[in-house]
Fold this protein.
Amino acid sequence: MRKKVTKAIFPVAGLGTRFLPATKSVPKEIMTLVDRPLIQYAIDEARAAGIKEFIFVTSRGKSALEDYFDHSPILEQELRKKGKTELLALLKDTNMDSGAIAYIRQHRALGLGHAVWCARRLIADEAFAVILPDDVIAAETPCLKQMVEAYAETGGNMVAAMEVPPEKASAYGVLDVQEDMGSIVSVKGMVEKPKREEAPSNLAVIGRYILGPSVLNNLNKMRAGAGGEIQLTDAIAADIGTANGVYGYRFRGQRFDCGSKAGFLQATVAFALARDDLRDDLSAYLREVVNMSKAAE
Ligand code: G1P
């Protein structure tokens, strides 16, 4: 039987310049969708998929992330004293087991492939997951859990995949499909941020991966690719045609690009509308806004 995937890497070293000035002092991953930091969604998804060890690849200025995952005994004590049991449960739910989180610094911003490579010594010789917290996926079955289940069938390397409008494909890693089996596709090529006319398809890589240790070996010798950065896509593509193979997985769910302001706002609205305590007020307000803009036309 295939060994369970229990480790996940979270590359969180990015400067978050698109969200300046907020990211002057707040790591992007701590910015909140409603009342939960972006990173919490990624952690919850990883936990649901059976991940037990969480490896953060960070950089200077990210210490708020470490504090966020620390226990907060004084706050917990206060809430207990005041009988705020629901809040206490909510807070405790975000606590991580001692020793479950490791932080590794990426000293230079050399790209996503390099960030993952920085965690190589904590992975050793086993399959691991990578989650890009910017890609938030709302799904009945969390995306990584879907992938872990599909991976049990395929092995090799698996990347989350989604059809995007062809004119947007150049913002992504793009798959060249060998065989389309519905939710799973086998892959014969992968290109990071192709020029529009060179994109092999409009099936884009989304930030969820289950990778074999061979990808870390490939990263050992990887040179800079698109944008002058060491690309994870290239290191995965180097496994195509080997015994490991590469698969794309079309997940069920809605993906939000929280690396962009518009995506972040859309996710905020979607997650708020999914909440019993906010739905009525917010949808009334949204209707009002729509009616106002219609009236102005
Ligand atoms: C990264 C990956 C890219 C992938 C994308 C998904 O790019 O390099 O292959 O399609 O995430 O969000 P980035 O968005 O960091 O430029």
Notes: The first helix runs from residue 38 to 48.
